[in-house]
From TrEMBL:
Record-annotated Heparan-alpha-glucosaminide N-acetyltransferase catalytic domain positions: 86-209
UniProt feature, compositional bias: Low complexity: 1-14
Membrane-spanning segments: 92-115, 127-145, 157-176, 196-214, 234-252, 339-360, 372-391, 397-421, 441-461
Protein name (database record): Heparan-alpha-glucosaminide N-acetyltransferase catalytic domain-containing protein
Record keywords: Membrane, Transmembrane, Transmembrane helix
UniProt cross-references to InterPro entries, sorted A to Z: HGSNAT_cat
Species the sequence originates in: Dichanthelium oligosanthes
Region spans: Disordered: 1-28, 55-80
Amino acid sequence: MVGAAAAGNAGRGAPPEPSGGRQPGAMGGYELVCSDDAPDLAVVDLEAGVVAGVGPGPCGDDDHPKRGGGSGKRAAGNSPAPARQRLVSLDVFRGITVLLMIIADDAGAFIPVMNHSPWDGVTVADFVMPFFLFIVGVALALAYKRVPDKLDATKKAVLRALKLFCLGLVLQGGFFHGVRSLTFGVDLQEIRLMGILQRIAIAYLLTALCEIWLKGDKDVDYGFDLLKRYRYQLFVGAIVAITYMALLYGTYVPDWEYQTSGPGSTEKSFLVKCGVRGDTSPGCNAVGMIDRKILGIQHLYGRPVYARSKQCSIDSPQNGPLPPDAPSWCQAPFDPEGLLSSVMAIVTCLIGLQYGHVIVHFQKHRERIMNWLIPSFSMLVLALIMDFFGMHMNKPLYTLSYTLATAGAAGLLFAGIYTLVDVYGYRRPTAAMEWMGMHALMIYVLIACNILPIFIHGFYWKEPKNNLLKFVGIGA
């Protein structure tokens, strides 16, 4: 399941710069930053980033007064103003995504809309991974607002991505054998190489490098100026998307074979007939072929999502026995976080980066919100048009229509949370989400990766079934 909250918390703890940004590479606390040349403001409502009666905005000597701890009312105009105000919407957005991840993990088995789509189409669960990637991009724009030493920032970004990738190998590579299994260890010949944190690490690294090295110096006064200032980053995103499309629809996929172990360790061989180009079905797509060729089929995820499709399960959309006429590819390994699909994950992160630039360069709330809403609606409309004409939204393949739809939805959600929490100050209803967002990596490791349940099952009396859960009355 998706749990890419990790990247948002990596590097937490570095002190903020006096200017209100973070030290390069730090990704913890975020402020309502603005551009260096933004004018001072002293007006209220969506037209300004400050509260009535307070002097200059976030770039001046005074800043937003703290909201009243979730009281639902804006602070009085004569209240003292702190030096900085945290951008709470980042944590709330990430916390909501963490909650969706947990619900999808636990409720997906009996609520179809909370489970991943078996192939084409999207469900609520299919928005979780892109939402994490999106918010990582937003955070990077604030983390690298100023980069005094590009080589040092690059080194730190590479090391952070490596740590994240290695953590993903341990958590999702097969080292742990299940909640109720008290054994661990993995054969390196069969370790799963890709996974959620590995995808996050790749997208994080490429996006961070773009933000460190590919910035223009043009002043930003209007939304169109953002396109000019960050045109090289947009060019990278376009090249990545075009490369993905060319490989997905232009790569020839030949026939291929795989083996599975049946009852009694008997090995069965299956031949998948393809011989096609541009196919996006589960058995003959270029995404799976590239993973099989480069990573090796033994290093892919062994429980493919299409095993719940109507073609492969009589209990679809849940797992079930194979139909009598099931295709030969139904039991073949397929990694939903594979190499080619992770290429498009970079695009999602780059889109989030541009949304973060809006925070950096625009001070008025209305300007920020409008510069988020327009591209968000545009991406959603374009995604629906593409889906209508046959380029379907598909999470396992991470298609372009899926990328645009999920990024557009993420932009709308982020704009809504920003308006509710950072503009109007309603923090009490979202306090739990804020906490979850601030501890996303810990929650992902302990809950989504089952480390906490494994730990609890590891303490028992005489027999494994007599564990701590049974002791407190929950049962083994």
